[in-house]
Design a protein that fits this description.
By secondary structure, the chain is mostly helical. It has helices spanning 2-33, 39-54, 60-64, 82-85, 95-111, 118-126, 129-136, 140-153, 177-190, 194-206, 218-229, 239-244, 250-258. Helix 6 packs antiparallel against helix 11 and helix 8 packs parallel to helix 11.
Length: 260
């Protein structure tokens, strides 16, 4: 019966992806008309350049007292985000998109989701916030890539600390040794920014940011998780056992399945 439904899932996926392509083209025209393609990346580069030139990461008004967040003005990223932003003062701009989207695409392919999951994943691509944030060059791409990396290799999920409100995704792979090694390396790498870490709580506390401000693109973030939960690799493994394998990284769960 499931095999008989495969053409339906394939056809439905094609239709949804076609709609997503049309939507992306329309959004591209709108955003390009506002000269806003990649504008988020340009902002991150300006934050990095300001820090390189002056040592200022959080602005004076952020540290002085209560303020209302202004997009493209106020920086609420933790200090170690500089390890992501500064290299892109020198790297080819295209890599800002190629690296995270490549990681996400590879992990979804590696998961080999069953046919009925394809339309679900396609709907996430159709969700307007997904192509919108990609066109703007938002760090949501890197967050989704860190989650995907956690699903596949465990350790990349430590980089979810770039957006602390999404830190619960960092539980992916937490029972893996590689996760703890990566966490220790990241902690050591953060030491040079100690003074900025002391400013970070003040900058966030003074703002009007809410805990859930990063939740707007949750569908994009859970895409690699859904691909893993719907993986054809699972076979007859109970779904709760398979899902629990995420705590050690999906790659570990897949290897355990293959060695049985």
């Amino acid at each position: 019966m499931r095999r008989n439904l495969r053409p339906l899932w394939v056809g439905l996926t094609i239709v949804i992806l076609a709609l997503a392509a049309i939507e992306t083209v329309l959004l591209d025209r709108i955003i390009d008309g506002q000269a806003a393609i990649g504008t988020d990346l340009h902002y991150y580069q300006s934050v990095a350049q300001r820090w390189v030139d002056t040592g200022v990461y959080y602005t004076e008004h952020q540290l002085a007292g209560p303020y209302v967040i202004q997009t493209q003005v106020d920086n609420l990223y933790p200090p170690h985000a500089l390890y992501l932003f500064v290299p892109f003062l020198f790297l080819p701009t295209v890599l800002w998109w190629v690296i995270p989207l490549g990681v996400i695409g590879y992990v979804v392919w590696w998961c080999r989701p069953v046919a009925w999951m394809w339309p679900v994943l396609a709907l996430i691509v159709l969700f307007p916030k997904t192509p919108g944030q990609i066109l703007f060059g938002n760090t949501d791409m890197w967050i989704a890539a860190a989650i995907a990396g956690g699903v596949r290799w465990a350790w990349p999920s430590v980089f979810l600390t770039l957006k602390p409100s999404l830190g619960f995704f960092a539980l992916i792979g937490i029972r893996s040794r590689s996760w703890w090694i990566a966490a220790a390396v990241l902690a050591l790498a953060s030491l040079p920014f100690l003074s900025l870490w002391l400013d970070y709580p003040t900058a966030t506390r003074n703002s009007n940011a809410t805990f859930w401000y990063s939740f707007g693109n949750l569908p994009f973030f859970v895409l690699p998780i859904l691909a893993f939960l719907g993986s054809s690799r699972r076979g007859d493994t109970p779904i709760q056992t398979w899902a629990a394998g995420l705590l050690r990284g999906g790659g570990w769960a897949a290897r355990q399945k293959e060695t049985r």
